[in-house]
Inverse folding.
Protein backbone atom coordinates (compact mmCIF):
# COMPACT_ATOMS: atom_id res chain seq x y z
CA UNK A 1 0.00 0.00 0.00
CA UNK A 2 1.12 3.55 -0.74
CA UNK A 3 0.66 6.38 1.73
CA UNK A 4 -0.53 9.82 0.65
CA UNK A 5 -1.35 12.97 2.60
CA UNK A 6 -4.67 14.69 1.94
CA UNK A 7 -5.42 18.36 2.68
CA UNK A 8 -8.65 20.25 2.23
CA UNK A 9 -9.62 23.82 2.93
CA UNK A 10 -13.33 23.00 2.61
CA UNK A 11 -13.47 24.06 -1.05
CA UNK A 12 -10.76 21.98 -2.71
CA UNK A 13 -8.38 19.11 -2.03
CA UNK A 14 -4.62 18.70 -2.38
CA UNK A 15 -2.93 15.31 -2.35
CA UNK A 16 0.77 14.96 -1.53
CA UNK A 17 2.83 11.85 -2.19
CA UNK A 18 5.28 12.51 0.64
CA UNK A 19 5.04 14.12 4.03
CA UNK A 20 7.95 16.37 3.02
CA UNK A 21 6.05 17.59 -0.03
CA UNK A 22 3.03 18.41 2.14
CA UNK A 23 5.17 20.25 4.70
CA UNK A 24 6.96 22.25 1.99
CA UNK A 25 3.59 23.34 0.56
CA UNK A 26 2.24 24.22 4.03
CA UNK A 27 5.35 26.26 4.86
CA UNK A 28 4.69 28.40 1.81
CA UNK A 29 0.88 28.45 1.56
CA UNK A 30 -0.82 27.53 4.84
CA UNK A 31 1.50 27.30 7.88
CA UNK A 32 -1.35 26.12 10.14
CA UNK A 33 -2.64 23.58 7.61
CA UNK A 34 -2.80 19.87 8.32
CA UNK A 35 -2.73 16.93 5.94
CA UNK A 36 -4.14 13.56 6.96
CA UNK A 37 -2.32 10.37 6.09
CA UNK A 38 -4.19 7.72 4.07
CA UNK A 39 -3.19 4.42 2.55
CA UNK A 40 -4.20 3.96 -1.07
CA UNK A 41 -4.03 0.86 -3.19
CA UNK A 42 -1.61 1.63 -5.99
CA UNK A 43 1.34 0.15 -7.82
CA UNK A 44 3.06 3.56 -7.68
CA UNK A 45 4.19 2.62 -4.16
CA UNK A 46 6.63 0.20 -5.77
CA UNK A 47 8.96 3.13 -6.49
CA UNK A 48 11.52 3.00 -3.69
CA UNK A 49 12.03 6.00 -1.42
CA UNK A 50 14.86 8.38 -2.28
CA UNK A 51 16.88 10.21 0.36
CA UNK A 52 18.08 13.64 -0.76
CA UNK A 53 18.25 17.27 0.28
CA UNK A 54 15.30 19.19 -1.08
CA UNK A 55 14.41 22.86 -1.52
CA UNK A 56 10.65 22.57 -1.87
CA UNK A 57 8.14 20.91 -4.12
CA UNK A 58 7.13 21.61 -7.71
CA UNK A 59 3.51 22.19 -8.62
CA UNK A 60 1.80 19.16 -10.16
CA UNK A 61 1.61 21.26 -13.35
CA UNK A 62 5.41 21.66 -13.47
CA UNK A 63 6.46 18.02 -13.74
CA UNK A 64 5.42 14.71 -15.24
CA UNK A 65 5.18 12.04 -12.59
CA UNK A 66 7.32 8.94 -12.88
CA UNK A 67 5.08 5.90 -13.35
CA UNK A 68 7.37 3.07 -12.32
CA UNK A 69 10.72 2.53 -10.65
CA UNK A 70 12.72 2.51 -13.89
CA UNK A 71 10.91 5.28 -15.82
CA UNK A 72 12.88 8.24 -14.43
CA UNK A 73 14.49 9.06 -17.80
CA UNK A 74 11.13 9.13 -19.62
CA UNK A 75 9.48 11.28 -16.91
CA UNK A 76 12.51 13.60 -16.67
CA UNK A 77 12.60 14.10 -20.44
CA UNK A 78 8.84 14.71 -20.54
CA UNK A 79 9.21 17.32 -17.81
CA UNK A 80 12.24 19.01 -19.37
CA UNK A 81 10.69 19.31 -22.84
CA UNK A 82 7.15 19.94 -21.55
CA UNK A 83 5.66 16.83 -23.09
CA UNK A 84 3.95 13.66 -21.88
CA UNK A 85 5.32 10.24 -20.99
CA UNK A 86 3.36 8.78 -23.90
CA UNK A 87 4.90 11.21 -26.43
CA UNK A 88 8.43 10.73 -25.08
CA UNK A 89 8.04 6.93 -25.10
CA UNK A 90 6.81 7.10 -28.71
CA UNK A 91 9.76 9.35 -29.66
CA UNK A 92 12.21 6.91 -28.06
CA UNK A 93 10.32 3.95 -29.55
CA UNK A 94 9.93 2.23 -26.19
CA UNK A 95 6.83 0.85 -24.53
CA UNK A 96 5.75 2.43 -21.29
CA UNK A 97 6.38 -0.06 -18.56
CA UNK A 98 3.90 -1.85 -16.42
CA UNK A 99 4.19 -0.29 -12.95
CA UNK A 100 4.79 -3.74 -11.46
CA UNK A 101 7.82 -4.41 -13.70
CA UNK A 102 10.63 -3.94 -11.21
CA UNK A 103 13.16 -6.13 -13.01
CA UNK A 104 13.36 -4.08 -16.22
CA UNK A 105 16.53 -2.08 -16.74
CA UNK A 106 15.92 1.65 -17.08
CA UNK A 107 16.92 3.73 -20.10
CA UNK A 108 20.42 5.13 -20.43
CA UNK A 109 19.96 8.87 -21.14
CA UNK A 110 22.94 8.84 -23.52
CA UNK A 111 21.09 6.34 -25.73
CA UNK A 112 18.23 8.81 -26.32
CA UNK A 113 20.19 11.39 -28.34
CA UNK A 114 19.42 10.17 -31.87
CA UNK A 115 15.70 9.77 -31.22
CA UNK A 116 15.53 13.21 -29.63
CA UNK A 117 17.32 14.78 -32.59
CA UNK A 118 14.94 13.04 -34.99
CA UNK A 119 12.07 14.59 -32.98
CA UNK A 120 13.51 18.12 -33.33
CA UNK A 121 15.62 18.39 -30.17
CA UNK A 122 19.32 19.14 -30.15
CA UNK A 123 20.72 17.18 -27.21
CA UNK A 124 24.20 18.07 -25.98
CA UNK A 125 25.61 15.36 -23.69
CA UNK A 126 27.92 16.42 -20.86
CA UNK A 127 29.85 13.70 -19.05
CA UNK A 128 31.40 14.94 -15.83
CA UNK A 129 35.05 14.52 -14.92
CA UNK A 130 33.84 12.51 -11.91
CA UNK A 131 32.00 10.07 -14.22
CA UNK A 132 35.07 9.81 -16.46
CA UNK A 133 37.22 8.84 -13.47
CA UNK A 134 39.20 5.79 -14.49
CA UNK A 135 38.59 6.42 -18.19
CA UNK A 136 40.74 8.59 -20.38
CA UNK A 137 39.73 12.06 -19.21
CA UNK A 138 40.37 15.05 -21.38
CA UNK A 139 40.19 18.75 -20.60
CA UNK A 140 36.80 18.78 -22.33
CA UNK A 141 35.22 16.99 -19.35
CA UNK A 142 33.60 19.49 -17.00
CA UNK A 143 33.42 18.82 -13.29
CA UNK A 144 30.05 18.22 -11.69
CA UNK A 145 30.11 21.75 -10.24
CA UNK A 146 30.96 23.24 -13.64
CA UNK A 147 28.02 21.38 -15.18
CA UNK A 148 25.74 22.84 -12.49
CA UNK A 149 26.85 26.32 -13.63
CA UNK A 150 26.68 25.84 -17.40
CA UNK A 151 23.19 24.30 -17.47
CA UNK A 152 21.60 27.34 -15.83
CA UNK A 153 19.05 28.81 -18.21
CA UNK A 154 18.87 25.61 -20.29
CA UNK A 155 16.48 22.67 -20.13
CA UNK A 156 18.21 19.36 -19.38
CA UNK A 157 18.05 16.02 -17.67
CA UNK A 158 20.63 15.21 -15.03
CA UNK A 159 22.00 11.74 -14.30
CA UNK A 160 23.55 10.84 -10.96
CA UNK A 161 24.00 7.87 -8.65
CA UNK A 162 21.48 7.81 -5.80
CA UNK A 163 22.45 5.81 -2.70
CA UNK A 164 18.91 4.40 -2.41
CA UNK A 165 17.93 3.58 -6.00
CA UNK A 166 21.16 3.54 -8.02
CA UNK A 167 21.29 5.44 -11.32
CA UNK A 168 18.61 8.13 -11.33
CA UNK A 169 17.57 11.07 -13.50
CA UNK A 170 16.24 14.50 -12.60
CA UNK A 171 14.53 17.04 -14.83
CA UNK A 172 16.21 20.46 -15.04
CA UNK A 173 13.85 23.31 -15.96
CA UNK A 174 16.60 25.90 -16.40
CA UNK A 175 16.91 26.76 -12.73
CA UNK A 176 15.64 23.83 -10.63
CA UNK A 177 16.23 20.09 -10.44
CA UNK A 178 12.90 18.27 -10.16
CA UNK A 179 12.67 14.64 -9.09
CA UNK A 180 9.79 13.19 -11.09
CA UNK A 181 9.36 10.42 -8.51
CA UNK A 182 7.49 12.83 -6.23
CA UNK A 183 7.95 16.39 -7.53
CA UNK A 184 10.49 17.42 -4.94
CA UNK A 185 12.92 20.16 -5.94
CA UNK A 186 16.36 18.69 -5.26
CA UNK A 187 19.19 20.68 -3.74
CA UNK A 188 22.14 19.84 -6.00
CA UNK A 189 24.81 20.96 -3.51
CA UNK A 190 25.50 17.36 -2.42
CA UNK A 191 24.74 15.72 -5.78
CA UNK A 192 27.61 14.63 -8.01
CA UNK A 193 26.30 14.98 -11.55
CA UNK A 194 27.56 12.18 -13.76
CA UNK A 195 25.81 13.22 -16.97
CA UNK A 196 23.61 16.01 -18.20
CA UNK A 197 21.77 16.14 -21.50
CA UNK A 198 21.17 19.80 -22.42
CA UNK A 199 18.08 20.13 -24.64
CA UNK A 200 17.41 22.84 -27.22
CA UNK A 201 14.63 22.91 -29.83
CA UNK A 202 16.15 22.64 -33.36
Amino acid sequence: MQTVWLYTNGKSFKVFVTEEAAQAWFDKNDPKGVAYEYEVESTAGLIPPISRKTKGVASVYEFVSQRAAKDCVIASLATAIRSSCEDVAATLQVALRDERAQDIKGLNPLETLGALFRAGWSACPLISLEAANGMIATPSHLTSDEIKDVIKGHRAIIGYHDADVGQHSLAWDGERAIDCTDGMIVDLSDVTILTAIVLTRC
Remarks:
- The longest strand covers residues 193-201.
